[in-house]
Design a protein that fits this description.
Length: 328
């Protein structure tokens, strides 16, 4: 088969021949229908998240099951499925025993412990696959498996209450979905961005207001929940100035700099909460909103042969707002 192979740390991605995977016990082979290119793929390529090279990356896979391995009972040929980041835990540590495999230190992840989805075929553990709603296209479904799952998990983990106000800082691959999810759930939603050219687009996505910074957010009434999807902690720290008392800041971005916590937030009892993908029920809900058309991924689509160009646009922060790879 063809696959996008990363030869070594910081190496150029190359589309080339690669062994077609076979399904082992409890595994399935998926013929990839679409594969989202997440900024985390850039981190892995650059060695910020360790893996073994050469490696095929990609952890937003969707497609059709074409082979089922021994012992698989709940999936069959032609099922439309996707796979999340963490496929399985060790099964033996405290967090696995608590049913929270996403917290296992020895978890097996898509495109890290197993080959990823920027290829024609991918193998996955059957239990790690999620059936995709019939009316959701592959292109719309793929980014939900990391970006959509992450932001909806963060929103749910913030324990939103009726009448609360939600703000989103960092309107990109995650943030444009976070806005739509908060709105789909019925909450007043405010976008924080310094890019003036994004304003109109952000309103079309459903934001009730667009403000430039945390001070303007506070002046506009503030936020009880801040979905911090920015890859800049200085932007997140600035946005926190707009928090209301007892607010929750949900950290979902990745930034190399330290995060500065403004002192006044201590007196306002504002909580800082880390969040990633907090359990498969949130993936189910995230896909369902997308299937209902209440959340639409804005994506640039590239053929597998064009993946280097897609990578460059994601790495350079130019993509609006997500890149999706489809078969040649
Ligand atoms: Zn991702
Ligand atoms: Zn474990």
């Amino acid at each position: 088969m063809k696959a996008a192979v990363v030869p070594q740390v910081a190496g150029r991605w190359q589309v080339k021949e690669w062994p077609t995977p076979k399904a082992g016990p409890n595994q399935v082979v998926i013929k990839i229908g679409a594969s989202g290119l997440c900024y985390t793929d850039v981190h892995i390529t650059l060695g910020h998240i360790p893996t073994r090279f050469p490696r095929v990356l990609g952890h937003e896979p969707v497609g059709e099951i074409v082979e089922v391995g021994p012992g698989v009972t709940s999936r069959k040929i032609a099922d439309r499925v996707g796979v999340g980041w963490v496929q399985r835990g060790c099964g033996r540590c405290e967090w696995c025993l608590r049913g929270k495999k996403e917290l296992c230190a020895n978890a097996v992840s898509t495109g890290i412990g197993l080959e990823g989805s920027h290829a024609e075929y991918m193998v996955a553990y059957a239990d790690a696959t999620m059936l995709i709603p019939d009316r959701l296209s592959y292109e719309q479904a793929a980014p939900i498996f990391c970006a959509g799952y992450t932001v909806w998990s963060g929103f749910r983990f913030a324990d939103p209450k009726p009448h609360e106000r939600v703000a989103v800082v960092g309107i990109g691959g995650l943030g444009h979905l976070a806005l739509q999810y908060a709105k789909a759930a019925g909450f007043e939603t405010i976008a924080i961005t310094r890019s003036k050219d994004k304003g109109e687009m952000i309103r079309e996505l459903g934001a009730d207001a667009v403000v430039e910074n945390g001070e303007k957010l506070l002046a506009a009434g503030g936020a009880d929940i801040l979905l911090a999807t920015s890859n800049s902690w200085s932007a997140t720290a600035d946005a926190m100035k707009g928090m209301r008392p007892d607010g929750r800041v949900m950290l979902m971005g990745v930034s190399p700099e330290p995060l500065n916590y403004p002192l006044e937030l201590m007196f306002k009892r504002v909580r800082l909460i880390g969040s990633s993908q907090n359990g498969v029920e949130y993936l189910y809900e995230a896909l369902d909103y997308a299937a209902q058309g209440k959340v639409k991924v804005m994506a640039e689509t590239y053929k597998l042969d064009e993946i280097e160009r897609a990578y460059d646009r994601v790495a350079g922060g130019q993509v609006r707002f997500r890149a999706v790879i489809t078969p040649n």
